[in-house]
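Protocol step 4 of 6: structure prediction from sequence.
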Amino acid sequence: MTSYFAPAAIALGLSTAMAAPAMAGSYAPAPAEPVIVPAVPAAAPDGDWGGAYVGLSYGYIDVDTDSGAPDDDSDALGIMAGYRWDFGKTVAGVEVEYGEPDLNFGSEEVDSVWRIKGQYGYDFGRTLAYATAGIAPTDTSLGSETGYLVGLGVDYQMTPNWVLGAEVLYHDFDEFGSSGVGADATTAAVRVSYRF
């Protein structure tokens, strides 16, 4: 009996030993390592600055008079409307602004100020930096005078329609009416506008 089981046991042992390496490995190829592609940051969206807008400005105005009249300063609220043309990297525009600052030169006071301005600036995408110049027709109790103004501003598009900005202007007035009193004024204002 032992003679029948011994060859069978040897054959079984050999077949198991030979089959073990075949079962241990697989003929399927190993999975490829994933390729990691670095993410490319999205480019800052180019702002479209062309079109019409309306808005409000609020700031500070400091007036220095000549001819011995007293100086004054005040906060200043204004309303504005304008139109801009976007040429790609440069932007040109026109704007009209109206305000009634609470300014007094002794017993005299400023009734209203109009600002009619041209703008030219550089488009940084959602930010626009610009220079501005124009005229400022002003009515006072001393008389009327149209002065000139120059300034700098920056606007930022919070959304495609809403814009937050800041502007600094220098004004020069030769003489109000025939009073012999002239003045120069500096304004610094924060602006909010809605683009159409």
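Step 5 (inspection) to follow. The chain has one domain: 51-195.
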